[in-house]
Design brief:
- The chain is about 0% helix and about 0% strand.
- The chain has about 100 residues and is largely without helices or strands.
- The relative contact order is 0.03.
- It comes from Serratia marcescens.
- InterPro entries: Gp5_Vgr_C.
- This is Type VI secretion system tip protein VgrG.
- It holds the Pfam family Gp5_trimer_C.
């Protein structure tokens, strides 16, 4: 019946897809992805992600970020940082500057 259509794909082993130009996907509902092993993503150009609502990220194991160029973080609305266990270590090779426009408590 109209509005109740379903399209299912199943690969018994591997599935490969090649798009020689652009690929656009529009989803009017929700999207769930479950990956049983590893995920590798490579983007050779710029990447932009826009979340128009709340975003929550949970990492149950170690997280490592390697930045090979400058990083800029702009936070509007404040920030809370709580370290539950362990310590905090910052190693800086080079100069550091600190500017505070307000009270420090």
């Amino acid at each position: 019946s109209p509005g109740n259509e379903s399209f299912d794909m199943h690969a018994e082993r591997n599935m490969n897809m090649t798009v020689e130009n652009d690929k656009n996907v529009n989803i009017d509902g929700s999207r769930t992805t479950i990956i049983g092993r590893q995920q590798d993503d490579t983007v050779t150009g710029d990447a932009t992600f826009l979340y128009k609502a709340k975003r929550t990220t949970t990492v149950n194991g170690l997280e490592t970020a390697n930045l090979n160029a400058h990083q800029t973080v702009n936070i509007k609305g404040g920030r809370d940082l709580t370290i539950i266990d362990g310590g905090d270590k910052i190693d800086i090779t080079g100069n550091q500057s600190f500017k505070l426009d307000g009270a420090q408590t």
